[in-house]
Amino acid sequence: MAFAVKNIFDVTNWYLKKAMIDQINLQPAKLYRILFLSSIYYSVVFSGKKLMPATFVIDEDHGPIEPNLYAIMPNESEYNIQYSNRIDEQTESFLESIWLKFSRMPINRLSEICELQNYVWNETLEEQGNGAELNLEECIQLFSDAKRKRPKSKYEQIQSFRDGKAEIPPVEDVITPRNAKTVDGKIVSLQPWMPGRK
């Protein structure tokens, strides 16, 4: 199965460019987690298709890292690889949804989602230690199984965050609809196509 984007650097540069436009300081640890979540959610939404060729490994200090990317940017959010603009509209819409959901989320909350609530992370770390490869198929299954719960009040959201009980967001809460105008000027909500949904 072909990848949606040919390499991790194009996706990384897309996020770095978005961070610059939105004036968000995108620290490497946050970037690595957003890339990890992008890979997982893309496979959930598109029935196992992969966003990009990437292998994520456990790094207790930085979260799930992609070792090739980490080798060229361990501590800085700028590096000299050209952005190729080879991201199709559907994939860019998907990346935009991930960005909207996670870009302003505090790093400790992203850590909760990527690591502490991820039994695959915990089991791999316990059995194989730091530097072990994460089984993306198991992560995809875990994130696919995340269910939408009743909406929480603002108080419950703040309390669960303070208690360190961040939950893996279900795909329906991550992929956001876009609005468009019809020919007669009506505003309609565009829903992302999700395989199997009617």
Describe this structure in words.
It is a single chain. The chain is mostly helical and 198 residues long. 48% of the residues lie in helices and 7% in strands. It is built from nine helices and four strands. It has helices at 8-22, 28-45, 67-72, 89-102, 107-116, 119-128, 136-144, 154-162, 171-174, and strands at residues 57-59, 63-65, 178-181, 187-190. The strands form two sheets. It has a two-stranded antiparallel ribbon. Strand 3 (178-181) and strand 4 form a beta hairpin. The model has no long low-confidence stretch (mean pLDDT 79).
Compressed to H and E, one letter per element, the order equals HHEEHHHHHHHEE
Contiguous helical run count: 9
N-C termini distance: 24 Å
Structurally, the number of domains stands at: 1
Instruction: Give the overall shape.
Output: globular
**Number of E strands:** 4
* Biggest sheet overview: 2 strands, antiparallel
Helix content: 40-55%
Oligomer: single chain
Placed side by side, the strands forming the largest sheet appear as 1-2
Give the percentage of residues in beta strands: 5-15%
Low-confidence runs (pLDDT<50, min 5 residues)?
A: none
Mean pLDDT: 79
Structural class: mainly alpha
* Cα gyration radius (Å): 17 Å
